[in-house]
Design goal:
Order of helices and strands: EEEHEHEEEEEHEHHHEHEHEHEHH
CATH superfamily: Aldolase class I
Strand content: 15-25%
Number of strands: 14
Number of helices: 11
Helix content: 25-40%
CATH topology: TIM Barrel
Strand order of the largest sheet: 3-4-5-10-11-12-13-14
Bound molecules: flavin mononucleotide
Radius of gyration: 19 Å
């Protein structure tokens, strides 16, 4: 089989050395929400990927819903990220930061002082989340965002994208997937607003389009990608009737804005509900930039989907956790280590930077 995975790819103004992307993965090692040397080591160990996408990183103090996730909204965080981008670039890698505002997927114990848990509507997520202080705690009812808070949050994304460029990132990925703030706006079961940000498809995608447009204007569309998860049910996203139309229109609009990629999540191989193939085709047809596929891929499946032009790049998640030299192992056809889920979110080097390389 011809190895498309190892071919280079032009992404905006940069050239990726292969089609293998490290998927964004929260690892909760950012003590005090500040990136550090340990994280720089972790990412640099994996710099053989054509593109690294960082763990979800909050553009706002209000978006730090989980314990020990990094932010990117002040100088201290910027300086921390600079260590990461320097280490990756030293190894000739490319790296985008994933901007993730957790919205209602949050708990006050995980957040700093004078912060607010915001969402399009005051609809709480069912269940509990981890806090370092009191272990599992029920999700609180979020505060419905005012018009001003929406504008402010859009500006926070834009500001964070500018800081990302200053910190040396090659670009940013807007996290529009997996049930976080952007998707909370898109989903009509969670977004119950009656103003211009709720109701029709056009209104529900207004928030993400404003972020995308203003971010692209600020740093250049060739540096802005987005991750989406049509049919995804993570963090309490119910399936609804208009999914196809929603993502089809979103792809048209994001294409007009000129984003560099759309990154499609399909977690059905991990037990999530099926993602109708036609929604992926609609995105592919309407969006002329790069398409990244993700979810449950191995090298064989990735080659097949690239060959059939379903996408241009493939993101791998868990394999990158346990195989720092994942790309090298694929080129040599070597067997892969399995990741230990017990250390996915624990602080420290164990299960993070101590997986062995060849
Ligand atoms: C530990 C862990 C943390 C994750 N954190 C994020 C995240 O911060 N942002 C995101 O978009 N997806 C996140 N994901 C989802 C992955 O990006 C990816 O879609 C998922 O692992 C499926 O791909 P895989 O089968 O190759 O592992 C996470 C997955 C794992 C295992």
């Amino acid at each position: 089989m011809e190895n498309i995975l190892f071919k280079s790819h032009k992404l905006g103004n940069i050239t990726l050395k292969n089609r293998i992307v490290m998927a964004p993965m929260t690892r909760s090692r950012a003590i005090g929400n500040i990136p550090n040397e340990l994280m720089a080591e972790y990412y640099s160990q994996r710099a053989d990927a054509g593109l690294l996408i960082t763990e979800g990183t909050s553009p706002s103090p209000n978006g730090l819903g989980y314990a020990r996730i990094p932010g990117l909204f002040n100088r201290e965080q910027l300086n921390g990220w600079r260590k990461v981008t320097d280490a990756v670039h030293k190894k000739d890698g490319k790296i985008f930061v994933q901007l993730m505002h957790t919205g209602r997927v949050s708990h006050p114990l995980n957040m700093g002082e004078n912060t607010k848990i915001l969402a399009p509507s005051a609809v709480a997520l069912r269940g509990e989340m981890w806090t370092d202080q009191k272990q599992l705690q029920p999700y609180p009812v979020p505060q419905e965002m005012s018009f001003e808070e929406i504008q402010q949050t859009v500006e926070e994304f834009v500001n964070s994208a500018k800081l990302a460029v200053e910190a040396g990132f090659d670009g940013v990925e807007l996290h529009g997937a997996n049930g976080y703030l952007i998707e909370q706006f898109i989903n009509p079961e969670i977004n119950k607003r009656s103003d211009q940000y709720g109701g029709s498809i056009e209104n529900r995608i207004r928030f993400v389009l404003e972020i995308a447009k203003k971010t692209a204007e600020a740093i250049g569309g060739e540096k802005v990608g987005i991750r989406v998860s049509p049919y995804g049910t993570a963090s309490g996203m119910p399936v609804y009737d208009e999914i196809e139309e929603t993502y089809s229109l979103l792809a048209v609009k994001l294409n007009e804005i000129g984003l560099v990629y759309m990154h499609i999540v399909d977690h059905s191989a991990l037990g999530a509900p099926k993602v109708n193939p036609s929604v992926k085709e609609a995105i592919r047809n309407n969006f002329k930039g790069t398409i990244i596929l993700s979810g449950g891929y191995d090298a064989h499946k990735a080659e097949g989907d690239l060959k059939n032009t379903k996408g241009d790049l493939v993101a791998f998640g868990r394999y990158f956790i346990s195989n720092p030299d994942f790309v090298k192992k694929l080129t040599l056809g070597l067997s892969l280590q399995e990741a230990d889920s017990r250390t996915f979110y624990t602080p420290g080097a164990k299960g993070y930077t101590d997986y062995t390389s060849l």
